[in-house]
Specification:
Radius of gyration of chain B: 48 Å
Number of domains of chain A: 1
EC number (chain B): 2.7.13.3
Structural class of chain B: mainly alpha
Strand order of the largest sheet of chain B: 2-4-5-7-6
CATH class of the largest domain in chain B: Mainly Alpha
Number of strands of chain B: 7
Strand content of chain A: 15-25%
Organism (chain B): Paracoccus subflavus
Largest sheet of chain B: 5 strands, mixed
Helix content of chain A: 25-40%
CATH architecture of chain A: 3-Layer(aba) Sandwich
Oligomer: heterodimer
Order of helices and strands of chain A: EHEHEHHEEH
Protein name (chain B): histidine kinase
Number of helices of chain A: 5
Membrane topology (chain B): Multi-pass membrane protein
Strand order of the largest sheet of chain A: 2-1-3-4-5
CATH superfamily of the largest domain in chain B: Sodium/glucose cotransporter
Main location (chain B): membrane
Largest sheet of chain A: 5 strands, parallel
Helix content of chain B: 55-70%
């Protein structure tokens, strides 16, 4: 069971995040599409979801809304870090929001704060 | 019943009527007109239609002619059923012009001609005299029924004077209550209230008798119907049922009579406070008539069945209860008949005397005086009152003389019909005057003149026994023939002379006022009471707009020390209101408007002229304003559309900027993340090399995106510089295929071409066209999902030297919902397998083709994705292209 599930369609970004967080010792899994994102969360039961907003087929906010409405309370309560390329500082339902491009240390700090 | 008791009862009843009339007049004098003005009182007063003729005569009529009596009730019923259309209009116009009689109405409409009024008055007098005589006769006859009922000869001899006494008493009543004052609106509250009470007595008496006949003499309705059936089917009684010619004529005549008879016009129009009471009368009066006619046939049939053959059918209503020993019922019926006769005589005399005094005596007096204008108004007022009293006495005297002379032999019904048909002759002129602006005085003279002449010769004189003046075709009914002929000639003469004659200016104005003055205020109810300020406010709002009107009214109310916005209608307020309104709509119109709402004085001809003048000016002004308004509306609409377009553009721009932000941030995120990672000294050389590669790719992607954006911006602004040259499509397609093969080089495409067809020479910007072809082919390489991908390229020469290039693949194509979007910016299909494009490719292609004077479209239904590029033989001149694009 991974600590972190990254749902991000840009492979380079996904790999960068995975690389950065793995080096901090976190177990990181990847999912590359909006489609099936919610199933991936249910299956992996991560402690943290890092979610991109602009996903093909299904946007991150849609996935977030469905996640929060999940019948399993432990799934519904999964902490979510939202990655956005639109510069928003706050998005409803998301626990933390990080604007792209971000500093790697900021990413690591946010993740550490959310998981420890 | 003893004769003395009858006389005493009768006198008591008369005294009651005097008392009621006196009380009502006093109440009206004190301003307590609320209940006097009640629509029920109005409706009951209309029942003056049911004179002694209908009370006694209807049964006689039914006994002689069967169902035909019903026509006398059907005509008025039809007229009142349409009260909302016709009578309302009549009453409103008459009230507006303060009309005092039907002669006055006709004269007012046709240029205030006194000679026309005199002519109508003549017809009225000729028709009404026998009718009044008939009422005297009926009272006299009804007294006789009681008197001869086992009484001595002396008393019978005394009967000769009955009619005289009745006439004298009625003249007294009429003079007292009919000429008390010279009210501006000619209303007589005392008389109206008294006849309303008499109407109640009439209906109660008749219904009581009817109930007695059906349930007392006969064995209930079934037996009654049986008796009626037996009588109706008796061969002796041919014509008891429908006779279409007579029915048509009689319904027509009685419908006319209910408006035109002097007494009817008096109560219906002159005594009406306003036209709104017709809402009640419209159904209540027909209901009254229905109740009055309900038992006519049963009484007539019962009279034929049980009374001696020589009994007078006109007196069945009295003799039936008297013979059955029902003295009290007989007395009640007597009072009913007495009421019918007296109310008719009183109202008719008031109406006729008004006409005689206004249209005969006063003009005569004014002509005879040397200096007609020198006398003070009171002088004239006294004369008019006295003239009216004189006319009442004369009318009564002539009627009594007529009754004496005719010997009281004519059947009641025929005398009533004479009056009906006579008054019907003024109907064409009256209706025409109300409905047709073109009607004029010559037409009215001709119509009324010829119609009444024919009536004289064919109906009136024959009723006096002077017969055979005009030949009547043998096979037709003489009465129906006379009625229809006289009315037809009357109407035709009226129309013909109206068409050929010229109305004078006063007539024109009056015509306009009569025919159309109803319309502007038809919907505003005239409230008579404390809340009159409200309609004025409504009116002022229409002129000034809600805010200004409310402010003005509020200020006025404050001046009077009242809160709210409804001031009392003080003269000062009305003057200020009128003055302010005059500033907006002209003085005559303001005056007329306030009068129409607040109730004021009669409009003079010069007022009307001014109104017409200002109305014309106002109309032109309105037209001008309407044109300006339409212009403004057009401009506003255009501005609105432009604004919508700008808003849509602004929304698009915001979306576009959001998209650009996303497209820029995505590669920058990778670049930043990996460059920070590269700072870490513990990376392996392989990792360093891979991450540097990623940074390089993403930087390239950023550059391409910026290039595309700049390119698009230049193309969209129409400022792209084209370097045109002759090219062959074959060469361009070769180059495009080569360049595009760099996209996903691992995929092998089979390309289907027809090289010969591709040798089409055109003049265009080769680099730009190449850009389009590469983009389309690269897209096919990127997105075609077939296992063995095929690219099909077809070139067709089109008209005027242009060309058409179709490029299709054999993949699954683009789903229909997205086909409309693919040429939009950032419409990159959400496909994870895409290869780094920013989603601007096809948008750029579209702009390039527009710049080249051609177009690129998606071809649906080709199996795979298919695009068509259409090119002209040469591009349009650049400035033209720029203009076309911006448009």
């Amino acid at each position: 069971m991974p600590d972190i599930l990254i749902i991000e369609d840009e492979p380079n970004i996904a790999h960068a995040v995975q690389f950065i967080l793995s080096r901090d010792g976190w177990q990181v899994a990847l999912h590359g599409d909006g489609l099936g994102g919610i199933e991936a969360i249910r299956g992996a039961k991560p402690r943290l979801v890092i979610l991109d907003v602009m996903l093909p087929h299904r946007s991150g906010t849609e996935i977030l809304a469905e996640l929060r409405g999940d019948h399993d309370p432990s799934i519904a309560a999964t902490p979510v870090l939202l990655l956005t390329a639109r510069g928003q500082a706050h998005v409803p339902l998301a626990d933390e929001v990080l604007a792209k491009p971000f500093a790697n240390d900021d990413l690591r700090a946010v993740v550490r704060r959310m998981l420890v | 019943m003893p004769f003395e008791a009858l006389v005493a009862g009768c006198l008591a009843y008369v005294a009651l009527m005097f008392g009621v009339a006196f009380a009502a007049d006093r109440a009206a004098g004190r301003g307590k007109v609320r209940w006097l003005d009640h629509p029920v009182v109005y409706t009951l007063s209309l029942s003056v239609y049911c004179s002694a003729w209908t009370f006694y005569g209807a049964v006689g009529y039914a006994s002689r002619s069967g169902l035909e009596f019903a026509t006398i009730y059907l005509g008025p019923t039809i007229v009142f059923a349409g009260a909302w259309w016709g009578l309302r209009r009549l009453v409103r116009v008459a009230r507006m012009h303060h009309v005092t009689s039907i002669a006055d109405l006709i004269s007012a409409r046709f240029g205030k001609s006194n000679r026309l009024a005199g002519l109508v008055t003549l017809i009225v007098v000729v028709a009404a005299t026998p009718y009044v005589a008939l009422q005297l006769q009926s009272v006299s006859l009804s007294f006789e029924v009681f008197a001869t009922d086992g009484l001595s000869d002396i008393r019978v001899a005394g009967m000769q004077g009955t009619a005289l006494w009745v006439a004298a008493g009625l003249a007294l009543f009429t003079i007292i209550f009919g000429t008390r004052n010279l009210a501006a609106d000619e209303r007589h509250h005392g008389v109206v209230t008294a006849i309303a009470l008499e109407a109640v007595v009439k209906i109660l008496a008749f219904l009581a008798l009817g109930i007695f006949v059906v349930w007392g003499l006969a064995d209930g309705p079934a037996d009654m119907v049986d008796r009626i059936h037996r009588t109706a089917t008796d061969p002796e009684n041919r014509g008891w049922l429908l006779q279409p010619d007579r029915w048509t004529a009689l319904i027509l005549v009685s419908g006319a009579a209910v408006i035109a008879l002097p007494r009817m016009f008096q109560v219906l129009v002159v005594e009406a406070a306003d036209e709104d009471r017709l809402a009640t009368a419209g159904w209540a009066f027909p209901a009254y008539l229905f109740a009055m006619s309900l038992f006519v046939l049963p009484i007539a049939v019962m009279g034929r069945d049980v009374l001696p053959a020589d009994a007078n059918p006109d007196l069945y209503v009295l003799t039936l209860p008297a013979q059955s020993g029902q003295n009290w019922l007989a007395f009640l019926v007597f009072l009913g008949g007495f009421s019918a006769a007296t109310s008719m005589v009183v109202v008719c005399t008031i109406a006729v005397s008004t006409m005689i005094s206004n249209h005969w005596l006063t003009p005569l007096w004014l002509t005879l005086r040397r200096r007609p204008q020198s006398g003070d108004p009171e002088d004239l007022r006294g004369f008019v009152l006295n003239a009216r009293r004189l006319a009442i006495l004369a009318m009564m005297a002539v009627s009594w003389t007529y009754y004496q002379a005719s010997g009281g032999t004519a059947a009641l019904a025929s005398m009533g019909l004479v009056a009906f048909t006579g008054m019907a002759q003024v109907m064409p002129a009256m209706l025409g005057g109300l409905l047709w602006r073109g009607a004029n005085r010559q037409g009215a003279y001709a119509g009324v003149g010829t119609g009444s002449l024919l009536w004289m010769l064919m109906i009136f004189l024959p009723s006096l026994g002077i017969d055979g003046l005009l030949p009547v075709p043998p096979e037709v009914d003489p009465l129906a023939f006379a009625i229809l002929l006289s009315l037809a000639v009357n109407t035709l003469a009226f129309i013909a002379l109206s068409i050929f004659g010229m109305p004078d200016p006063v007539e024109r104005l009056q015509g306009l006022s009569f025919v159309s003055a109803v319309d502007p205020i038809r919907h505003s109810r005239v409230a008579r009471g404390v809340d009159q300020a409200e309609p004025l406010l409504v009116m002022a709002r229409r002129v000034w707009g809600a805010e200004d009107a409310l402010r003005f009214f509020q200020t006025e109310a404050a001046l009077q020390g009242k809160s709210g916005y409804l001031p009392d209608l003080t003269p000062g307020f009305l003057t200020r209101l009128e003055r302010r309104l005059a500033g907006s709509i002209g003085s005559a119109t303001a005056h007329a408007m306030i009068d129409s709402v607040a109730g004021g004085v009669k409009l003079t001809v010069s007022d009307l002229m001014q109104v017409a003048d200002e109305a014309q000016r106002a109309k032109e002004e309105t037209q001008r304003l309407e044109n300006a308004t339409a212009e403004l509306a057009r401009t506003a609409r255009q501005l609105h559309e432009a604004n919508d377009k700008l808003t849509a553009l602004s929304v698009q721009k915001d979306a576009f900027l959001g998209q650009i932000s996303h497209e820029l941030r995505t590669p920058m995120t990778s670049v930043r993340a990996f460059s920070e990672i590269l700072k870490n000294p513990t990376l392996t050389p392989e990792e360093r090399s891979r991450f540097a590669g990623i940074i390089h790719d993403e930087a390239g992607r950023l550059t391409r995106l910026l290039d595309d954006l700049l390119d698009l911006s230049v193309l969209e602004s129409g400022q792209a510089r084209l370097s045109v040259m002759p090219v062959t499509l074959h060469d361009l397609i070769d180059r495009a295929l080569t360049a595009a093969s760099a996209t996903r080089p691992e995929r092998h495409f089979r390309v289907e071409r027809d090289p010969l067809a591709e040798y089409v020479g055109i003049i265009t910007d080769a680099d730009r066209l190449l850009q389009v072809l590469i983009n389309v082919i690269s897209n096919a390489r990127k997105y075609c999902d077939a296992e063995h991908p095929v690219l099909i390229i077809r070139v067709i020469r089109v008209l005027q030297g242009g060309a058409q290039i179709d490029i299709a693949d054999n993949g699954s194509g683009i789903e229909p919902a997205r086909q409309a979007l693919i040429f939009e910016k950032f419409a990159r299909l959400n496909d994870p397998a895409r290869a780094g494009g920013a989603g601007l490719g096809l948008a750029i292609c579209k702009e390039i083709m527009a710049n080249l004077g051609g177009e690129i479209t998606y071809l649906p239904g080709q199996g795979g994705a298919a695009f068509r590029v259409v090119l002209p033989r040469r591009p349009p001149v650049p400035s033209d292209a720029g203009w076309r694009h911006r448009a």
